[in-house]
Design a protein that fits this description.
heterodimer, A: 514 residues, alpha+beta, 3-stranded antiparallel sheet, 38% helix, elongated, B: 96 residues, mainly alpha, two-stranded antiparallel ribbon, 8% strand
Chain lengths: 514, 96
């Protein structure tokens, strides 16, 4: 059996304003406060393309290895839905601005190249709130999101497992965050995914039966994409088993070609008694039960009655423009990952976390490393303490009060003074609180320079001399008795001794004691 | 190619959200048949070597900078809403 998965990913571009008007794209504004006659579709208005959106889209397409069309235009996709005030969506139909790219992904089964059919620009629809009680009450419409610039990235149907689909999405997110095209926050709707899924089941004659394609709409987390696909595969196999020979039959008259497979389709008897192909359907995913639910027959492409939008003129892209955007692309995440590993000797794990958190975060790490000279330590602090603080404070690294430079100074200072992790964290918290530099924070906390190993040794020896009982207990096998010696030294140093060094010294000296 | 009354009903209901009387369906079927016939006639024109025209104006690359402009106040935005609930447009429930 072969599973066939294609993904349509929508990402919101990082613009300040909408695609065709100057309304704000800020997330979480009060309902219907970011709309105007253009995005509400009032008569007599003219949309004008946002240049920054076009540049960002081109940047994304180039990073996805797509070729950029020299001539591109906008089309209207017509349908009625309350969240679409114009009754058409401005999108790109037959001349999208980019075509045929690819993305390299990594899964447990090894590396894979996933082809990208096209990436095009379009506007978002509004947001609807439905009567949660299901009592048939009114639905509410907020048009703030209407007209927000989206890049739609359509993959070839080349993924074969739910895991590959997840890896593909994670890779898109990493890439687009890395080149600062989108923040790809699924919870805020700036990354959304529809998955097209079907299965090819082998037949005795060497051909395959293709189940009807199901498009699972609006998946809102990467985990749910994986869950929905896994469930949908099972559902289709069951449906196939139940329906063939009853409502469905295999079309034995012809095959189509899919890669190296010969594929047969399924047919059902329509109300006129003729056998016709079972058409594509859409499904939603119910998060609570982890299952996909079939919604409706997919409208054929022609039902959208696409036609060129007369309100928008075409865009012509020159070689120089493409070269300029390419020049601004900077280092792609895959190259950055390799460089972080070779230049700083980071583990793949650390480098991956840094890269996945975007270019400013990598910059933060590099600034810290430049100051303190210890990449491993800088990576540790960045990927552990700093990341969890950013999450807790709901901040980006750019907003974080401790800059990469300050982190570097701090790391150099704790190394010089041999502060243990606990003390270091206190200093870090003080820096965060007061916005001060490491030296000032250390001064404020009254932390003295810590004793070096010679001084510590002297203290350990004094502690052993004055704690005969603890030494005797230790010799009798009570390992815990060593804590009394350590406690003595910690009191002497006001808790600033390097715990690892102290532990070693205490054990060495206790072993020597009579 | 003749457009049948059933095709008109389907287009009206599914695509245009129009509720038509039988008389209107008959009328429109006739009108649409004429329009499609005219397009068929246009299709006969020889267009080999003619570049498809995406836009009648000889303009391209009309852009605006990404600068925010004031939006409508919410009361003005909702002024034409057939039904308003709080600061939302209200529409008949989508899920029954």
């Amino acid at each position: 059996m072969h599973v066939v998965i294609g993904l349509e990913v929508h990402v919101q571009l990082l613009t300040r304003t909408k695609l065709f008007c100057g309304c704000s794209t800020e997330f979480g504004l009060p309902p219907n406060t970011a709309t105007c006659p253009v995005c509400c579709g009032l008569p007599g208005t003219l949309p004008v393309m946002n240049e920054h959106a076009f540049q960002l889209a081109m940047k994304a397409a180039l990073a996805l290895h797509c070729s950029i069309a020299r001539y591109t235009k906008w089309d209207r996709k017509n349908y009625f839905y309350p969240d679409l005030p114009k009754n058409y969506q401005i999108s790109q139909y037959d001349l999208p601005f980019s075509n045929e790219g690819w993305l390299d992904i990594e899964t447990s089964a090894g590396p894979k190249k996933v082809g990208i059919l096209r990436a095009h620009l379009e506007e978002d629809a509004g947001k609807m709130l439905h009567d949660e009680a299901g009592a048939g009450g009114d639905s509410l419409v907020d048009l703030n999101r209407t007209g927000t610039p989206l890049l739609e990235i359509v993959s070839h149907p080349e993924m074969e497992t739910a895991e590959q689909a997840r890896a593909y999405l994670e890779k898109i997110r990493e890439l687009l965050r890395g080149i600062e095209v989108s923040d790809c926050e699924m919870q805020e709707g700036s990354l959304r995914c529809d998955a097209n899924v079907n299965v090819h089941v082998p037949q005795v004659d060497g051909t395959f039966v293709a189940t009807p394609i199901v498009e699972i709409k609006n998946l809102n987390s990467i985990r749910n994409v994986e869950r929905a696909i896994a469930h949908e595969i099972d559902r289709q196999l069951n449906e196939l088993k139940e329906n063939v020979g009853k409502e469905w039959r295999i079309d034995e008259s012809k095959t189509s070609v899919f890669g190296d497979r010969k594929v047969r389709r399924l047919e059902f008897k329509n109300k006129d008694g003729a056998w016709v192909p079972v058409s594509k359907t859409t499904a939603g995913f119910d998060d609570r039960f982890g299952r996909t639910e079939i919604q409706r027959r997919k409208e054929e492409a022609s039902d959208y009655r696409y036609f060129p939008d007369p309100d928008l003129v075409p865009a012509i892209v020159s070689e120089e423009q493409i070269a300029r955007v390419k020049g601004k692309l900077g280092e792609l995440p895959e190259h950055q990952l390799a460089r972080l590993r070779s230049q700083y000797g980071l583990s793949e794990y650390d480098a991956d976390i840094l890269v996945r958190n975007g270019r400013p975060f990598v910059g933060f790490f590099e600034a810290a490393t430049e100051v303190c000279g210890d990449a491993k330590e800088a990576a540790n602090w960045a990927t552990n303490d700093v990341l969890s603080l950013l999450k807790a404070r709901n901040e980006t690294v750019v907003e974080f009060p401790i800059t990469g430079h300050k982190l570097g100074e701090f790391l150099a200072e704790i190394k010089k003074r041999k502060l243990n992790k606990q003390r270091a964290r206190e200093v870090f918290a003080e820096m965060l609180e007061s916005g001060s530099h490491a030296v000032a924070a250390i001064g404020k906390l009254g932390i003295q320079s810590v004793a070096d190993e010679g001084q510590l040794l002297e203290m350990v020896q004094r502690a052993i001399a004055s704690n005969a009982k603890a030494v005797a207990d230790f010799k009798k096998g009570k390992v815990k008795a060593a804590d009394a010696i350590k406690g003595f030294v910690m009191r002497e140093t006001k808790g600033q001794a390097d715990t690892e060094v102290l532990q070693r010294l205490v054990l060495e000296e206790l072993a020597k004691a009579p | 190619m003749a457009i049948t009354p059933n095709e008109v009903r389907w287009i009206a209901r599914e695509l245009a959200r129009l509720d038509l009387s039988d008389a209107e369906v008959e009328d429109l079927a006739r009108d649409l048949t004429k329009i499609v016939g005219y397009v068929d006639q246009l299709q006969e024109a020889k267009t080999d070597g003619v570049e498809p025209l995406a836009h009648p104006l000889e303009l391209s690359n009309v852009f605006r900078p990404d600068n925010p402009q004031p939006s409508l106040p919410v009361d003005q935005a909702l002024a034409n809403a057939p039904l308003r609930k709080g600061d939302f447009y209200a529409v008949p429930g989508v899920f029954e």
